Amino acid sequence: MDLLEHEGKRLFARHGIAVPRGGLWPDPPGDLGPCVVKAQVRVGGRGKRGGIRFASSAVETRAAAEGLLGSALGDAAVGRIYVEERLDIARELYLAVMIDRDACCHTLLASPEGGVEVQAVAPERVLRLPVDPVMGLRPFMVRRIVRFLGAPEKAAKALGATAQALYELAVREDATLAEINPLALTADGRVVAADAKVSLDDRAAYRHPDWSAFEQADPGTEVERAILRAGGVAAEVDPEGDVVGVISGAGLMMATLDVMVAHGIRVRCVIDMGGTPLGSSEGLIPIFQAAAAMRPRVTFINAYFHTALADSFARGVLGAAETAPLSGRLILRLVGRRSEEGRRLLAPLGFATHEDLMAAIRAVAEAARETA
Ligand code: GDP
Ligand code: MN
Fold first, then answer.
1. Is 115 a pocket residue for ligand 1 (Cβ < 6 Å)?
2. N or C terminus: which one in the chain shows less Cβ crowding within 10 Å?
3. Could you tell me which CATH number the domain at 89-200 has?
4. How far apart are CA 214 and CA 343, in angstroms?
5. Segment 273-301 mean pLDDT
6. Cβ(116) to ligand 1 under 6 A?
């Protein structure tokens, strides 16, 4: 889960990292004075895209906020505005903690060149410090970071404390990324997080009940949401597509999509049934309903079971299709234990059945052509 800036800053504040005073529009603190009006979207580079505006009065703040609300930044619609005190920034630094999957530990990144994308900074200007999880972030490492950042003496203590706090935050909050860019050194010697980018590890949500307060990112399309509620996962691919794929497993779903696309098939949507076929046919009904509602020319069921029995899946399909008939030409590829029996059961429903994936894909391509 990627947090919005203002949510990330709330987390920062909780862990003792200094953030500018601010609040969500239309209720920011009234005494901010000159301020920054910031679009709350998950795309980066808001500054360059016009999503960060400076205002010197209440009138300017209102104009900036109302101008940004509802506008588009990249692919994202601006639904929320954060207003905060404007910092008098003397220097912009970069500081982040992320999980390095190769090194299997947290890694601290620091650069004296903040405010720009870290990928654009010369490698020798970025310090990468892996942190041994048993040892933690030790004071000598913090001193090394502070030295590398070349901060003035009076900011050194606050800078070290910020690095320490960011590391603790990443560990305690199960963040896969906690980034401050820029970390501002203000003219009066403060160290303040001017921006916040935090990604949380969804798999750790069970131990963070407070995460439910964060705004869900991109809830997906109507079909995707319906399939999620039904216990599967869907990806709508092409609104003009001809084929809906109903598939067993996320990996096979992506592979099937790739192969179909490689065969020139225009795919409307692919659906991973998740665990639904392993229960009764009841579980499949909402999935079939969502698949049929897209009115594809071809519905392609591609199922490969290692442990579940293919014929019991076929019985589930028979039952579900009675209540929720599938749309268009029906093609089935079914592999696994007792799949022969499964294919035989489904043939009367009008399925062209296959065991071989490529044969099934060719049949899908042909059916899409014939019905076009
Ligand atoms: P991003 O472009 O999405 O990363 O948004 P940021 O929050 O990082 O803002 C972009 C840039 O705006 C920063 O790098 C700063 O240069 C500038 N900026 C943001 N907040 C302030 C502020 O309070 N005072 C000043 N002077 N500049 C700011
Ligand atoms: Mn930034």
1. yes
2. C
3. 3.30.470.20
4. 46
5. 91
6. no
